[in-house]
Design a protein that fits this description.
Elements: H1 4-10, H2 17-28, H3 30-34, H4 38-45, H5 49-58, H6 64-75, H7 82-88, H8 94-111, H9 115-126, E1 132-136, H10 141-154, E2 158-161, H11 165-171, E3 180-184, H12 191-202, E4 206-211, H13 217-221, E5 224-227, H14 240-256, H15 258-275
Parallel strand pairs: 1-2, 1-3, 3-4, 4-5
Helix pairs in contact: 2-4, 2-5, 4-5, 8-14, 9-14, 10-14
Length: 280
């Protein structure tokens, strides 16, 4: 029987706006669904209890109780005992809060990785016959740059796309059948990222989405999607989980390209030494 996230993905195109908001709560705050009420879930989604019930029915459950039971089963193995959680609370200072938040982001992001999706993404990234284009929203530009740079060290033909619409269109003009587009963006999704990814896919490219929800407009256009967790300890989203996933994808591609990646890294290292670019 498919889990809740899989059912939501399967029914994504059929959900009303209100049902989508409820589905977002289910995906982003499963504990609220597992241990809450219809009224509480409706409040979190900014909609009515009827919308919560309609989503449960649309997903094939016999009311909210069925949805709740499925969510409870999914997260049951992920919840630590209360005593362990209490012992982990070692202070309320910024550093302690940040440590807890970032460890949680990395663990939840990597725990959510589906093995088949990961293998599919690595195969796409390691296929040196086709170029890879990396498109990231403004807040994720740094992660996109690190991903593109690391990937370019183990394989050729990797481009980080950015700039004005004219510059982006020019860079993507060679993006067609067989090309791979890695799209990285979190809510609120930037229109230029979504639009250019859609055009690239329409031209025959395959998209890999790194985003924060199965209901993201990037996930809707992607062949392979990964959900990252980005809860910050302060007012801003965290990008640590996203970076951890990016590192895992590069590591997977490097392993698949072991011989050619090693030769490429040796050549780069030789060029650095010849130029005296590094201080030993």
């Amino acid at each position: 029987m498919p889990d809740v996230a899989t059912r939501i993905e399967q029914h994504r195109g059929l959900l009303s706006p209100a049902e989508r908001r409820v589905a977002e709560v289910v995906l982003r705050d499963p504990e609220a669904v597992a241990f809450g009420t219809v009224a509480k879930v409706a409040e979190l989604a900014g909609t009515s209890g009827a919308s919560v019930m309609r989503l449960a029915t649309r997903l094939g459950f016999t009311g909210f109780g069925g949805l709740q039971a499925s969510v409870q089963a999914t997260i049951g193995q992920q919840l630590r005992p209360a005593a362990e959680r209490i012992r982990s609370e070692r202070g309320s200072d910024v550093v302690s809060r940040t440590l807890r938040a970032e460890v949680d982001n990395v663990q939840r992001t990597l725990d959510a990785v589906d093995a088949r999706s990961f293998d599919a993404a690595v195969r796409l990234l390691a296929d040196t016959r086709h170029p890879v284009f990396v498109i990231a929203g403004d807040a994720e530009t740094g992660v996109g740059a690190m991903f593109a740079t690391a990937l370019s060290l183990v394989r050729p033909d990797v481009t980080q796309v950015g700039g004005s619409d004219v510059a982006v269109a020019r860079q993507l003009s060679a993006c067609g059948e067989g090309s791979v587009v890695v799209a990285i963006d979190l809510r609120r999704y930037e229109r230029w990222v979504v639009d250019h990814v859609a055009r690239a896919v329409a031209a025959g490219a395959t998209a890999i989405a790194v985003t924060d929800s199965l209901l993201s407009p990037l996930a809707a256009r992607a062949e392979v999607s990964f959900t990252v967790f980005a809860e910050g300890a302060g007012v801003f989203d965290s990008h640590v989980g996203t970076l951890a996933l990016a590192n895992a994808l590069v590591t997977g591609a490097a392993a698949r390209l072991r011989r050619s990646a090693t030769a490429r890294l040796d050549a780069v290292e030789g060029a650095w030494r010849a130029a005296g670019a590094l201080v030993e």
